[in-house]
């Protein structure tokens, strides 16, 4: 099973991942963090080369998903392709729509993949900012939220959840997503 945890900075992705890892305690889940976050930290202005590095990264990520279908493995993606769709046009000056072409090309391998997108209010996200967010501007943060909701709607991953974490504890969020994880684990979805 593959679990993609997406969402805005400071929405609780890391805490949710820790709880999901506890669920898979004896099954050794692997967590994959996005390459482009580290890669872009070294560039002030994206180049065609840096854009191609991101494309290769997401293509390789879908290869991991494709090959895991026949394995008894559990991979948790700490952000993946929806972040590319949201952040590329806003901060990297190119379009990230190509990630949906990758979904389409790999559609037959997505039945054991879960997409969980966490959102919150812009005010809450900014209040929890750890200094690593793309932006703490209220208007930009609202645009990021809307872009993640749009990306969620555009995604063809069949097992997906959009979770508004506003007013919820991490345990509440975990209790919302756990039933879907269990159903896929048992082959019920």
Write a concise synopsis of the structure shown.
With 189 residues, the protein is of the alpha/beta class.
Characterization of the model:
With 189 residues, this protein is an alpha/beta fold. The protein is 51% helix and 14% strand. The protein contains eight helices and five strands. A five-stranded parallel sheet has the order 2-3-1-4-5, with helices on both faces. Helix 1 crosses helix 8, helix 3 runs parallel beside helix 5 and helix 4 runs antiparallel to helix 7. It starts with a strand and ends with a helix.
| Number of beta-strand segments | 5
Biggest sheet strand order reads 2-3-1-4-5
What is the 3D form? globular
List low-pLDDT spans: 35-41
Q: Beta fraction of the residues?
A: 5-15%
Keywords:
alpha/beta, 5-stranded parallel β-sheet, 5 strands, 51% helix, 189 residues
